[in-house]
Specification:
34% helix; 13 strands; alpha/beta; 296 residues; 7-stranded parallel sheet; Rossmann fold; 17% strand; 2 domains; globular; UDP-galactose 4-epimerase, domain 1
């Protein structure tokens, strides 16, 4: 297959690109800089540009028709519409990296793909003055599904974790405990779901061969209660967490949620997409970060 990846030089995008290279596809990577490219093993073509600029997207078009385009970094409706206008006639399938944040998590329900329908979006309103992540990603999905007359898959990712996580959200908790710094959780009994970074990249690669369209959740089986998560960290570090009862001084956990954040992966499982054990992934990552802190 002839495949172009917009983004793909960071975090789980690297696993996507490397998997495609390992499968001997003709791979093109579109990114603003060459940073991260030297980590790939195999032959690929780098197209340098900014996806917000029409002339840069036309560089992709100059390479002809692509079997699949992966959009890893679309952040609002205007960017989605521009890509449709410039490249819509040059791609046979689009796979968009979306987010579980398109859902409303208001109770303990396990969320399935049907819980947000892009048809509910008003396409006349694209980008509000104040950026709203949920609205923006919903609009990206809606525009891609409405504008493109090809198969479109919107992959709704839960929290992605791994050793290469540049957001350091997971690591943040271990560092706070290690340094005796306070942590605030709105609800320590809230349950969250995750997916491991390599699984995330490989799932994206896997989907190019699946005869599906529309949304699909990207999440490992099960969930972890935040109180259990913190207990595992305390055990690994041999220290007790210090909890704040009010939000102040940067103590709010990046995983702090009032309600459960749980997504179903039944659709992915039905397509034989594999996921690592969530408990083993979390414990392995806690071990990795605790060792890093102790040796620093």
């Amino acid at each position: 297959m002839k495949i172009v990846v917009i983004g793909g030089t960071n975090f789980f995008g690297k696993h996507l690109v490397q998997t495609l290279l390992d499968e001997n596809h003709e791979v093109f990577v579109f990114s603003r800089s060459k940073k991260g490219l030297n980590s790939f093993r195999g032959k690929f073509t780098h197209i340098q540009g900014d996806r917000k600029i029409e002339q840069d997207l036309l560089k992709i078009k100059s390479y002809g028709t692509f079997d699949v385009l992966y959009d890893q970094i679309c952040m609002n409706g205007s960017e989605a519409k521009l890509l449709c206008d410039v490249l819509g006639s040059s791609i046979k399938k689009l796979i968009f990296t979306s987010t579980g944040s398109v859902y409303d998590f208001k109770n303990s329900k396990v969320i399935s793909e049907e819980d947000f329908d892009y048809h509910s979006m008003n396409l006349k309103f694209v980008d509000p003055d104040v950026y709203d992540y949920q609205y923006a990603k919903r609009m990206c999905e809606a525009i891609y599904q409405h504008e493109l007359k090809i198969p479109v898959i919107c992959v709704r990712f839960t929290l992605v974790i791994g050793e290469n996580d540049y957001t350091k959200r997971f690591f943040w908790h271990l560092e706070r405990v290690f340094k005796d710094e306070p942590i605030y959780f709105p609800n320590l009994e809230a349950k969250l779901c995750f997916i491991e970074e390599e699984d995330a990249g490989k799932m994206l690669a896997n989907l190019k061969d699946k005869m599906i369209t529309g949304p699909i959740n990207a999440v490992a089986s099960g969930s972890i209660k935040m109180s259990d998560f913190m207990s595992r960290i305390e055990l690994a570090l041999g220290k007790k967490a210090i909890y704040k009862t009010v939000q102040e001084g940067g103590a709010h956990s990046p995983y702090g949620s009032e309600t459960d954040f749980m997504m179903s992966n039944e659709k992915a499982i039905s397509l034989n997409i594999p996921f690592k054990s969530l408990n083993q992934t979390v414990d392995g990552l806690i071990h990795f970060y605790s060792k890093t802190l102790k040796e620093s």
